[in-house]
TrEMBL record:
The chain crosses the membrane at residues 12-31, 37-62. It comes from Conyzicola lurida. This is Putative lysophospholipase L1 biosynthesis ABC-type transport system permease subunit. Keywords: Membrane, Transmembrane, Transmembrane helix.
Amino acid sequence: MAKPSRKDRTRPAELLILSAVMAIFTGLIVLMSTRDIVLSLIFVGIVFILVLVVLAMLVLAVRPDGDELHDLDEQDHPGGH
């Protein structure tokens, strides 16, 4: 069985980092406009989860290319049948 590439292994981390950056940005905007830390933390949590779910759904919507289909076929039939 082939090991996943570095890009495949780091993809979840990329989604988490992007979600965290967007959530922190939103939290800072809310904090600067309202000066309420609790409200800012609430928005950070909501935006983090929302962005993470939206990005995950977009990743699932992408159709695999020829190489990925070949790799999936190899994983389904390891004996070469």
